[in-house]
Each structure stands twice: as C-alpha cells, then as structure tokens.
Write a structure and sequence with these properties.
The complex is a heterodimer of chains A (221) and B (182). With 221 residues, chain A is mainly α. In chain A, 66% of the residues lie in helices and 0% in strands. Chain A has 2 domains: 7-100, RNA polymerase sigma factor, region 2, helix turn helix motif (Rna Polymerase Sigma Factor, Chain: A, Orthogonal Bundle), CATH 1.10.1740; 113-122 and 141-213, Orthogonal Bundle (Arc Repressor Mutant, subunit A), CATH 1.10.10. In chain A, helix 1 crosses helix 2 and helix 2 crosses helix 4 (80-100). In chain B, the strands form 2 sheets. In chain B, strands 2, 4, 5, 7, 8 and 9 form a 6-stranded mixed sheet that branches. In chain B, strands 1-3-6 form a 3-stranded antiparallel sheet, with no helix packed on it. In chain B, helix 1 (3-10) crosses helix 3 (30-47). Chain B has 2 domains: 3-47, no CATH class; 83-181, Immunoglobulin-like (Sandwich). Chain B has 182 residues and is of the alpha+beta class. Classes of the chains: A mainly alpha (221), B alpha+beta (182). Chains A and B meet through helix 2, helix 3, helix 4, helix 7 and helix 8 of A and helix 1, helix 2, helix 3, strand 4 and strand 7 of B.
C-alpha cells in the first residue's frame, strides 16, 4: 500500500498559477478516471446517469479550491486511490439522495435490528433438533415457555457482550448481511474462506458453552 | 466512520487498537458495513489487471494515421510533428486540431481526433488562472463555443478534451493554448 501523496495531487495543491493547476488537475483525473467511472457506474442506470454522476463528482472535487482533496492524509494508513474511491462513493450517494431522497432504516433503536437478527439466528443454530409439532407462535406460548425464551435471550446478550469486536463483526456479516464465507474472508483479511468457517464455528462453540454455563441448553425451545 | 478510516481499514493500514474500534462500530452499523463492503468490491474490480489485445488491424490503422500527411501537422519547415504527443504528455493520445495559437473569436471551433471506444468527450475551456470558462460533454469530436460564452480578445485561454472510454480509461489532447483575436 503506497501511503504517499500522488505527484499530481501534490502539484495540484501547491500549484503557483492556474496553468500549472489545470495541468495537474487533468493529469490527476486522467490517472483516476477509470476508478471514478467505475464508482459512477456502480450505482446503475443508463450512460447519461453515469456521466451525470461522474460530472457531479468532478465538480465536487474541484469545489472550493479542491478542499476535499486537501483533506487526504498520507500517514493515516490509507492509500490515495482507496481513499478517493471511498470519497467518490460518498459523493455519488449524496447525489443519489439529493435526487431520490434517503432511505430511512426501520426498527427501534433500543435493541438494534442487527442484534435481534443475530440472537434469533444464533438461538436457532444453538438449539437441539426442532420438533415442528412443538413449535408454537409466541401468543400461544405458556408463561413458562415465554420465561425460558426471555432467559435464553438474556443469556445470548450476555454471551455476545463477551465477544471481541472482530467476532461480533464476523457474526453480523454472517447472520445479518448473510455473506458467504469467501466474502467474509476478503472483508476481514483472512487467507481463505476456510479460516472464516473455522473462526465462525469457534465463536458459535464458545457461545454454546457460555449458554450452557448459564443453564441454557436450547432443549427447552 | 470518516473516509480515511474506511480507506485505512480496507487497506489494512490501522493499528490493532484502531482496527478494534472500527470493527466494534462496523458490528453495530449496517450502513457502514455496506459502505466498506461495496468499496472493497469496487477497488478489487478496478485493480484487476486488464489484458490488452492489440489486433493487427488496429496497429495498421494507427500506423496509417501517423503516415498520412495532414497539413495542420506540418511545421513551418515542412516536417511532420508527432501527432500522438503534440501538445500533451506521453499519456495523451487524442490529436488536437484546433484552435491553437491566435484564433479568430468569431469562428472558434474545437476539433480533435476520435478515440476508439470513447463513450463521450469532455471539453473544458479555461482561463490562464485555471478558472473554467465553459465545459461540455458530448459524443462529438467537434464543439463550437456557444454565443453565451464570451472570450476576451488578446487573453490567453486553454482547452482540453478528455475521452472517456468504455473500459474506464481515458485519453486526452493535453492542454492546448489559444488566444482569441478579431
């Protein structure tokens, strides 16, 4: 990863006059047009929409004496091209939201949707065999069954709190985003999908043990 | 998460503590996770090495373009300029036919060579201080300055045409200077 400022960016931001600045800007854009077009294209639509997004990005990058480009810091662990991709995607999102509005997330904030999904799926995977005849909707559950379910939920919450940030992220990617092991491995920088499977199984096994220690073995439904 | 944090996470450039903080946030924030995932996919796709297959027909066409004697490419001593590099850097490969040098303000037409695979051309006209005077995107390789745009006689101006290719690449005429005269 090249953590330096590209030559053209340095020339652009230090340009002593308009001619030098224009030349440096053209060189910078020429070097990164493929990346910017890929970002613009990734939001779909016809050719004209892609070009509109591309033109919008260029305009925003030039705005106020290239103030967005001036925020790049080479010693913060990111390469310029990766950072530019992130910035370009955000600009396209802004453009998209300005035209079509923002999609608001649903669900209450007290207990995030991600945690509910994870607990529900984990509970299913940690439980013993499901007897379909014993399945009942929550309204028909007895008070005892409801109490057991609440206790299992509380146990899962406590067990999840004991996980590392990476392990929690692993569960979110698998059970909420429903990503494949290969996709998870790429995101988390694991060598192979097998490593993702192994770590996931290890986390689930530890959660199972944590629940059993609390007297919750899943056989009560 | 700010853009630098997302980029540093993708580039594996964070310290252990910083990474833990970012991953703790990602575990809770589906929107940021989506942003990281989509950006990561995009970068992988863009950085995939492309195989260039140059057909013999294309090579022959390029050679013919160089050989053909265009009057505008002849220097005053009658020799030919290299059309691929005139007025630009080594990355330029669009031929800029005009305007160059002193050009009559009433008949300003920007003309350049076509680029194979070009989806559109972005023409930018700017003043000597870099301020953009006019810009246009179209599929044509000819553009006339609209009457609503006024250029000052005697001032220096620059124009450049960038071809946007279907594969995400670009070609450029490089900056060309001209001065409007009556």
């Amino acid at each position: 990863m090249d953590a330096t400022v590209p030559l053209q960016l340095g020339q652009l931001l230090r340009a002593p006059d308009g001619v030098t600045r224009a030349a440096a800007w053209n060189e910078l854009i020429a070097d990164h047009t493929r990346l910017l077009l890929a970002v613009a294209r990734s939001f779909g639509g016809a050719h004209d929409e892609t070009m509109d997004r591309y033109a919008y990005m260029l305009g925003e990058l030039r705005e106020a004496d290239f103030h967005r480009l001036r925020t790049f810091e080479p010693n913060r662990g990111a390469s310029f091209s990766t950072w530019l991709t992130v910035l370009a995607r955000r600009l396209c999102l802004d453009y998209h939201r300005a035209r079509y509005g923002r999609q608001r997330p649903t669900g209450d904030s007290e207990d995030s949707a991600s945690q509910r999904t994870i607990r529900r799926t984990l509970a299913d995977s940690l439980a013993s065999e499901l007897d379909t005849e014993s399945l009942a909707d929550s309204e028909a559950l007895s008070a005892d069954a409801l109490a057991v379910r609440r206790e299992r939920d509380a146990g899962l919450r406590a067990a999840l709190r004991g996980l590392s940030p990476r392990e929690k992220l692993l569960l979110a990617l698998r059970f909420q985003d429903e990503l494949s092991a290969s996709r998870i491995a790429r995101m988390l920088g694991m060598p192979t999908p097998f490593h993702a499977y192994r770590q996931l199984n290890s986390v689930l096994a530890r959660l199972r043990v944590a629940l059993e220690l609390r007297g919750i073995d899943g056989s009560d439904g | 998460m700010n853009d630098l944090q997302i980029a540093a996470y993708i580039d594996r450039g964070l310290s252990g503590t910083e990474r833990d903080q970012i991953e703790a946030h990602l575990a809770e924030c589906a929107e940021c996770r989506r942003h990281v995932l989509d950006t990561d996919e995009l970068i992988r796709r863009v950085r995939r090495p492309k195989r260039l297959v140059i057909g013999s027909a294309l090579v022959a066409a390029a050679a013919a373009l160089i050989i053909v004697a265009m009057p505008s490419l002849r220097r005053s001593d009658g020799t030919l300029e290299n059309p691929l590099y005139r007025g630009g850097t080594a990355s330029s490969s669009l031929i800029a036919y005009g305007p160059t040098g002193e050009s009559r303000v009433g008949s300003l037409r920007f003309v350049w060579s076509p680029a194979q695979g070009a989806m559109s051309y972005r023409l930018t006209v700017s003043r000597a201080d870099g301020a953009t005077v006019w810009t246009q995107s179209s599929r044509d390789t000819v553009a006339a300055l609209p009457t609503s745009v006024t250029l000052h006689v005697g001032d220096r101006y620059f124009w450049v045409s960038d071809a946007l290719l279907a594969d995400g690449g670009s070609r450029s005429t490089g900056l060309r200077e001209f001065t409007p005269i009556r």
